[in-house]
Structures are given as structure tokens and as C-alpha cells.
């Protein structure tokens, strides 16, 4: 299995990161992708990448919650790091209007700029979308038929929103522990998305799946997500694992096997 979205570089793992990686390996997780959040976190992303060579890939970008009046300076500082560190994606990027709409226009500008990085470098995006699907699609529409490829991470939209996204491109959708929550509707999009466009993820330390809900999430919990998806789609865990691994390897151009 591949955990396509984890933040194990964050301070929540400072005391036991080696053990977290060991548990992930033991659980069958063969690779982890770490998306960046802001300029400050680049050093922690890279330190984690360097500590576990071959096991970690990175994505670099500016998270929408870190976009404010100084976003252009952050982008200017992050851009040369892409050439230095060769990320597998630009991310995580996007728009988040759940808590605050103050920087909506700036988030749209930052997203547009970083999608141009994807085109320039020929690498995909990792999209964060929260209460902002229409704004994100409006930005994507600026690219016409030259859209970069990417994944809508932790997607919690409706089947109708899946189709709205698909009208722009044949994108992937990341599914994490939310799918296991009793009141979650994420399971409803699984047959709409289809196994050939699903990625497994944790978004650790957040959103731990049942039976670990409420605890710190970690990559070793990916099998719970895989198992839930398999049960809901009437497939074996091995079928879901093989398909989602293939999807991640294809999207991020991973050379790990």
C-alpha cells in the first residue's frame, strides 16, 4: 500500500517518528508521500525525506490556509526549491473557505500560480478543497484543455461534484479515514469515482479511521481504509491495494518497486 498523503514530518511525531515508520512498514505500507504546507515546513519535510531514503517522496507547495497578504513572497521563495528538491507533485495547494473567506481572492491567485508550476515542470498537483469546489473549478477552467493532472485529496464532495470535477479532467480522488466514519457520505462516491481513480491516504496526524478514530493518525492505519473500501465495493483487500498502488505510481511517476 502507498500512503499518498501524510504529514508525519509534523511535530506530533517528533518523539516517535522512527517507530511510526516501523509500524507503517510492518503494516504493509511500502511508500509515503509528504505534501508541504508552507515555507517554514519545507525543512521538516526534507529532513524526514532524507531520514528514510527511498521510502519517502515529497510534494512542495503553499497550503491555502497559509495564504495571506504575503503569499506572493512565500511563493517566490518556494519556487526555486522545486528545482532543488525534485518533488513528485505540487502540494498541497487549493482553496479552503471553511473557517475564513478573508483571503479567498488571494487563495485563487496562489492556486493559479502553482498550477502553472505543474505545467512548467510536468508534475501533478495535490488539491485541498474545503467549501470551495466551484472556486477551484473556476481556476481550473482558466487552463482550458492544457490542465495538469492531479488528485483531489481527502475528497468529501457529492457524486454530483465528482462529475463536475470530471468534466474538467480525468483526475484522481484521495480517500482516507473519513470514509469509515458512521455518518460520512464518502462511501457514496466510491462507485462513482471507480477503483481506477482512487488513492489511499491518511492525512496523518488527522482523520484516523475507525477503529482508531479520535487518536493520532499514522500511516500504519492505511489498511483500515483499504479494507473498508474493499468491503463497500465487494472486492478483496488485495484488489484495492493493487489498484490504488498502480494509481499512485502512475500519477506521481514513482519508481519504488
Q: Would you summarize the structure shown here?
A:
This protein is an alpha/beta fold and 257 residues long. It has helices at 17-26, 42-51, 71-85, 104-121, 133-141, 159-166, 190-193, 222-233, 237-252, and strands at 2-3, 31-35, 56-60, 89-96, 125-130, 150-153, 172-175, 198-200.
Mean pLDDT, all residues: 97
Major sheet description: 8 strands, parallel
Shape: globular
Helix content: 25-40%
- By CATH's scheme, which homologous superfamily applies? Metal-dependent hydrolases
Q: Tell me which CATH architecture applies here.
A: Alpha-Beta Barrel
Which key features would you list for this structure?
8 strands, TIM Barrel, eight-stranded parallel sheet, 257 residues, 14% strand, globular, alpha/beta
Structural overview:
It is a single chain. The protein is an alpha/beta fold and 257 residues long. The chain has nine helices and eight strands. The protein has an eight-stranded parallel sheet, with helices on both faces. The chain is globular and about 45 Å long.
Amino acid at each position: 500500500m502507498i500512503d499518498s498523503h501524510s504529514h508525519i514530518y509534523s511535530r506530533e511525531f517528533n518523539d516517535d517518528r522512527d517507530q511510526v515508520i516501523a509500524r507503517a512498514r510492518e503494516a504493509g505500507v511500502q511508500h509515503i508521500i509528504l505534501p508541504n504546507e508552507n515555507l517554514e515546513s519545507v525543512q521538516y519535510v526534507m529532513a524526514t525525506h532524507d531520514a528514510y531514503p527511498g521510502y519517502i517522496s515529497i510534494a512542495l507547495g503553499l497550503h491555502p490556509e497559509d495564504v495571506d497578504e504575503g503569499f506572493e513572497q512565500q511563493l517566490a521563495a518556494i519556487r526555486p526549491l522545486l528545482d532543488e528538491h525534485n518533488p513528485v507533485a505540487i502540494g498541497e495547494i487549493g482553496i479552503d473557505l471553511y473557517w475564513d473567506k478573508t483571503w479567498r481572492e488571494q487563495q485563487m491567485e496562489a492556486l493559479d500560480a502553482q498550477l502553472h508550476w505543474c505545467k512548467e515542470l510536468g508534475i501533478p498537483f495535490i488539491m485541498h478543497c474545503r467549501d470551495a469546489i466551484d472556486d477551484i473549478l473556476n481556476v481550473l477552467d482558466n487552463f482550458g484543455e492544457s490542465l495538469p493532472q492531479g488528485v483531489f485529496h481527502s475528497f468529501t464532495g457529492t457524486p454530483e461534484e465528482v462529475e463536475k470535477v470530471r468534466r474538467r479532467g480525468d483526475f484522481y480522488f484521495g480517500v482516507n479515514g473519513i470514509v469509515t466514519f458512521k455518518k460520512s457520505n464518502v462511501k457514496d462516491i466510491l462507485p462513482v469515482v471507480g477503483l481506477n481513480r482512487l488513492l489511499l491516504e491518511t492525512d496523518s496526524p488527522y482523520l484516523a479511521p475507525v477503529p482508531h478514530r479520535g487518536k493520532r493518525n499514522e500511516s500504519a492505519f492505511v489498511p483500515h481504509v483499504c479494507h473498508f473500501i474493499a468491503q463497500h465495493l465487494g472486492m478483496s483487500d488485495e484488489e484495492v491495494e493493487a489498484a490504488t498502488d498502480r494509481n499512485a505510481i502512475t500519477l506521481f511517476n514513482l519508481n519504488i518497486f
